[in-house]
Design brief:
Rossmann fold, 18% strand, 6PGDH_NADP-bd, 9 helices, NAD(P)-bd_dom_sf, 2 domains, alpha/beta, NADP binding, single chain, 6-phosphogluconate dehydrogenase NAD-binding protein
C-alpha cells in the first residue's frame, strides 16, 4: 500500500521502518532530511507535501499522523479529499477523536485512532474506527505490529480509550502483586514458600487469565529476587 506519513519523531521513524520492511510505499511529509536518508536505505520513500502526495496515492488514500494535536487534526480534516482515511497514532483524548471523526465525515473522510503500547520492543495496537475502514488499513497494521498484535476495539475513539484502560489495569495489577509479595515476605512462611511457583501457578491454573508481558516481567523479577533472598538467608543460617 501507499500512504502519507506525517511527523519526524521517533514514532514516525519506527512506523516507517516497519512499513517499508513490509513492502509499503511512503510519502513522508517532514523536513527532516536525515530521516529521509535513513529510510531510503530500507524501501520506497519520498519527501512530499501532503496535498501533493494525496494526488499520487492509489485507493484507499491513507494519511497517518504521529504528532499532530487534536486542533491540527481538525484543521487537516477540512482539506482532505473525500474518501481519505486519516489514521492518528498520537495519544488523544477519546472525545477529541469523536469530534475529529465527525469533522471528517462532513467531508466524506474516515478516521482511525491507534493506541500503541510497547513492551520489550513488541507493539500492541488498540484500533478504533469503522469496521470496513479498519479492514482497509489492516495490511498496514500487520506490517507494523504483526498478526495477532492489534485489536479492533470498536468505533473511532475506542482505540485510545481502551489503551488507557489497559494501562490502568496493568498499574492496578502491579500494585496488587507488590502488596501480595510484601505480605508473603512478612509472613512466618516466607523462608519455606517458593514465591515464583506460587504466583505462576495461581495465574495459570486458578484464574487462567493471560497477563501482559510487562506484568509477567514484574512478577518473575520479583519472584526471582525473593527466591535469591531466601537462598542467601539459608546460606547465612547454615
Amino acid at each position: 500500500m501507499q500512504l502519507v506519513l506525517l511527523g519526524g519523531n521517533f514514532e514516525a521513524e519506527d512506523i516507517a521502518r516497519r512499513l517499508l520492511t513490509g513492502g509499503h510505499e511512503i510519502y513522508l511529509d517532514s523536513q527532516d532530511t536525515s530521516l529521509l536518508k535513513r529510510l531510503g536505505y530500507i524501501g520506497r520513500v519520498a519527501r512530499m507535501e501532503t496535498q501533493e502526495a494525496l494526488g499520487r496515492l492509489s485507493e484507499p488514500r491513507v494519511v497517518w499522523s504521529t504528532e499532530l494535536s487534536g486542533r491540527q487534526l481538525r484543521e487537516l480534516a477540512e482539506h482532505l479529499p473525500a474518501g481519505t482515511i486519516l489514521v492518528n497514532s498520537r495519544a488523544q483524548y477519546f472525545e477529541d477523536n469523536i469530534q475529529i471523526t465527525d469533522r471528517l465525515a462532513e467531508h466524506g473522510g474516515h478516521y482511525i485512532d491507534v493506541g500503541a503500547m510497547i513492551d520489550d520492543h513488541r507493539l500492541a495496537l488498540f484500533v478504533g474506527g469503522d469496521q470496513q475502514v479498519f479492514q482497509d488499513v489492516e495490511p498496514l497494521l500487520t506490517a507494523i505490529a504483526g498478526k495477532g498484535s492489534y485489536y479492533h476495539c470498536g468505533p473511532s475513539g475506542a482505540g485510545h480509550f481502551l489503551r488507557c484502560m489497559q494501562q490502568k489495569y496493568e498499574v492496578q495489577v502491579h500494585s496488587a502483586l507488590a502488596s501480595i509479595i510484601s505480605e508473603i515476605r512478612r509472613s512466618p512462611f516466607n523462608e519455606e514458600i517458593n514465591l515464583e511457583a506460587f504466583l505462576i501457578f495461581g495465574h495459570l491454573f486458578c484464574k487462567k487469565q493471560p497477563l501482559p508481558d510487562s506484568v509477567w516481567n514484574f512478577l518473575i523479577t520479583h519472584a526471582h529476587a525473593a527466591v535469591c533472598e531466601m537462598q542467601q538467608q539459608g546460606e547465612t543460617v547454615a
